[in-house]
Design goal:
alpha/beta; ten-stranded mixed β-sheet; two-stranded antiparallel sheet; 15 helices; 12 strands; 54% helix; globular
């Protein structure tokens, strides 16, 4: 036992910290619950639109806006062929595919030259956004809609800018090279532009491709990966997309359109200078800058998220690769919010400044630090014998139980709406991974996000190597 003169101040510190942490987690998880409630009518509305026969006929007409698909590729020899095949055979009347080999050191360019029978062509456009030097432009003898750009390495943002410069159409869709898009996903992604004229960008749903059967660039059998790291990410993605971003639709505050699948008006992208190089989360940085530009120019345009256009992507399967990804994501989140801190609680930026920015600062950026403080306080209370049992139970319930409950609700929404996973065994796996995700996986990613603070303050700007297994291999 500690002497009273030491125990008293420690007890006071622990009690005060207890209250702050508990109220923070109650506020945060209640905010997520509100997003869940807001997402239900939005999900129902989009589900009915997706099944509307008249809209389906309209989607097959010439009214659809022409799209350019922008595909940055760096060391993607394993997946590039199957991914491009899925892009080139999408159900969309006016589509071109612009692939950028961003200085790959593997056989990516060799695969492109061989599989798509490329021949060199001169450029036929003006460069709107400066990029690293381009070595050559290629067209395909087999696919007239394909343009391949071979350039020196400049990073993903630089590759996307090179693709945007070459894009012929006024609307562009940014995707990752390891992404597999469902056949009608672009038709669905373009839907908001048919229903409203004041749309600047649209985000779609990303799902986990690990363990799925992929044939000829299509997911023919959606399965849950039995390994715990990819499996937990399935639950995590369902929660993030089905009610996280859906809920923000009604609040007008979507700050993230996934870099793996998003549609933009090219004129707005060029107006803000395209993708910013040197940023490790170029997708969030782009969307925040776009929101800021629209507000400052007094342009009434929305950036909605819609759930039914689906793209599948490979997620990390090992703790090492997952750690690099999550550390980079949190480091980029901090950098983006810090750079645009003038928007925080600024009524000039409407709901973005008054709702979205505060939520992402206090609910996303600071969450790892607050959670760490909660765990440290719990341990300190145990060590010095001043632990409040009521606090310990409440902390564990809020920090773990509430998160599990929200994950279970995300699974329920999936089962009641789109139900991509048809097997009963996959449903039970989802329930199991919802428990593991709340007790184990979340604490693991907490460590990685805390590393993001450390590397941000050290000025680290590297991505780290994202080793892939190759989603095309599941086709066998």
């Amino acid at each position: 036992m500690l002497p009273e003169f030491l125990a008293a101040p420690i007890r006071g510190f622990v009690a005060t910290t207890d209250q702050v942490v508990i109220w923070y987690f109650l506020f945060l998880n209640t905010s997520y619950a509100i997003l869940l409630l807001l997402s239900i009518p939005e999900l129902w509305r989009h589900w009915r639109l997706a099944a509307d026969e008249h809209l389906q006929r309209l989607l097959a007409t010439e009214a659809l806006p022409p799209l350019s698909l922008l595909v940055p590729a760096h060391n993607e020899e394993v997946t590039i062929s199957s991914s491009l095949l899925s892009f080139l055979t999408l159900e969309y009347p006016h589509l071109e595919v612009v692939v950028v080999n961003d200085g790959s050191k593997d056989r990516t360019m060799e695969v492109l030259l061989r599989e798509f029978d490329l021949y060199q062509v001169p450029p036929a456009f003006a460069v709107a956004v400066p990029t690293q030097p381009v070595r050559a432009y290629y067209r395909s003898r087999r696919h007239s809609r394909l343009l391949v750009i071979d350039k020196e390495n400049g990073g993903k943002a630089d590759a996307l800018n090179a693709a945007m410069n070459a894009a012929r159409h006024p609307f562009v869709v940014a995707v990752d090279a390891d992404t597999v898009i469902e056949p009608d996903a672009l038709l669905r992604l373009a839907r908001p532009f048919l229903l409203s004229s004041n749309v600047a960008a649209v985000g779609g749903t990303i799902r986990v491709a690990n363990n799925c059967t992929i044939e000829y660039g299509r997911v023919t059998d959606a399965r849950i990966d039995p390994r715990w790291i990819p499996g937990c990410q399935v639950v995590e993605y369902l929660r993030a997309f089905l009610f996280g971003r859906m809920g923000w639709n009604l609040l007008g505050g979507n700050l993230v359109i996934s870099g793996a699948f998003g549609l933009f008006r090219k004129e707005y992208l060029r107006a803000i200078g395209g993708y910013r190089t040197g940023n490790v989360t170029e997708d969030m940085d782009l969307v925040v800058r776009l929101h800021r530009y629209l507000r400052e120019q007094k342009i009434d345009a929305q950036l909605p998220f819609i759930p039914d256009p689906v793209a599948w992507t490979e997620v990390p399967a090992t703790t090492r690769v997952l750690g690099r990804q999550r550390e980079r994501w949190h480091r980029g989140l901090i950098a983006t919010l810090w750079e645009h801190r003038v928007m925080l609680f600024n009524p000039r930026y409407g709901r973005i400044g008054m709702l979205a920015m505060p939520f992402y600062v206090f609910g996303e950026m600071l969450a790892p630090a607050i959670e760490l403080i909660g765990w440290l306080t719990l341990v300190l209370g145990l060590l010095v014998g001043v632990l409040d049992v009521q606090f310990a139970l409440l902390f564990l319930g809020v920090a773990i139980g509430y998160g599990i409950l929200l994950s279970l609700w995300a699974i329920v929404l999936e089962e009641l709406s789109f139900r991509r996973y048809r097997r009963r065994g996959d449903f039970w796996r989802l329930l199991g991974f919802a428990l593991i995700e709340g007790l184990g996986y979340r604490q693991l990613t907490l460590v990685f996000r805390l590393q993001g603070y450390w590397r941000f303050f050290r000025g680290v700007e590297s991505w780290g190597r994202m080793t892939r297994e190759g989603i095309g291999r599941q086709a066998a």
